[in-house]
Design brief:
binds adenosine-5'-diphosphate, ATP-binding, sugar transport, nucleotide-binding, binds magnesium ion, four-stranded antiparallel beta sheet, transport, globular, about 260 residues, Multiple sugar transport system ATP-binding protein
Length: about 260
């Protein structure tokens, strides 16, 4: 799948009387890792949820790979999203968690049950191929030894790797992460930053990564977009944003010496 570019124009969102997004213009370039950085409550998650199709904008447009996605349901946007809260299927093994997206997208519904499916050679071969793909990605994420465990038997960092694996395995054209490391402890967080960047590079998938943590944005991003109070205040390379803040509010948030 070609990594997609994204074009956001005049995007606004109101909840009741609250203007949560105010005429946001933003481009995400094909294949880049873009960090959306801003304080809690500035509208980052709302923007991601609109990209994913979980929320409709009050005004403005979103185009992915040159096409408006207005009214296109989440399942038809070819987007994967990782949440802060993992959201793994608790009753399924790690292997089954990671196989599910490929089973849903490749096998007809009547053959998705393991027992029914294995009766037919074609379905059996497809399941075997899916199993191999899961093992390959699990190796890259260093969770290959955990494939037969249930989520309850994993540490926080291991759950997060599984959640990332499950999201990315379909090779979506757009990958969205909403503060995916915020529930991990500091040591694991910095280790995972490097691994996420390496994985994103290897897959080349266009990625929007939401964080309120400036260190995370500085160390991971190709480009940083600083949001405050529903607006985009600045976009640029990490060092440029840090050393040349264009608003007092950005400088204050980043702690840039005046
Ligand atoms: P961030 O992710 O940057 O912390 P959010 O996008 O979650 O910010 O929220 C931005 C603002 O919108 C917050 O004030 C939040 O309370 C409000 N908000 C988010 N979702 C809803 C909703 N479904 N209904 C009402 N207000 C909401
Ligand atoms: Mg949020």
């Amino acid at each position: 799948m070609m990594p997609a570019d994204v074009e956001i124009r005049g995007l606004s969102k109101r909840f009741g009387a609250a203007d949560v997004l105010r005429a946001v213009d933003l481009d995400v370039r094909s294949g880049e890792l873009l960090c959306l950085l801003g304080p809690s409550g500035c509208g980052k998650s709302t923007l991601l949820r609109i990209l994913a199709g979980f929320e409709e904008p009050s005004a403005g447009t979103v185009s992915i790979a040159g096409r408006s996605v207005a009214g296109v349901p989440p399942s038809e946007r070819d987007i994967a999203m990782v949440f802060q809260s993992f959201a793994l299927y608790p009753h399924m093994s790690v292997r089954a968690n990671m196989m599910t997206p490929l089973i849903m997208s490749r096998l007809p519904f009547w053959s998705r049950q393991p027992l029914l499916g294995t009766l037919l050679p074609g379905v059996r071969a497809a399941r075997r191929e899916i199993g191999l793909e899961v093992e390959r990605l699990a190796g890259q994420l260093r969770i290959e030894a955990l494939l037969d465990r249930k989520p309850a038997q994993l540490s926080g960092g291991q759950k997060q790797r599984v959640a990332i694996g499950r999201a990315i395995i379909r090779q979506p054209r757009l990958f969205l992460m909403d503060e995916p490391l915020s529930s991990l402890d500091a040591g694991l967080r910095s280790e995972m930053r490097g691994e996420l960047v390496a994985l994103q590079r290897r897959l080349g998938v266009t990625t929007v990564y939401v964080t309120h943590d400036q260190t995370e944005a500085m160390t991971m991003a190709d480009r940083i977009v600083v949001m405050m109070d529903g607006r985009v205040l600045q976009a640029g390379a990490p060092l440029a944003v840090f050393h040349e803040p264009q608003h007092v509010a950005v400088a204050r948030f980043l702690g840039t010496p005046a």
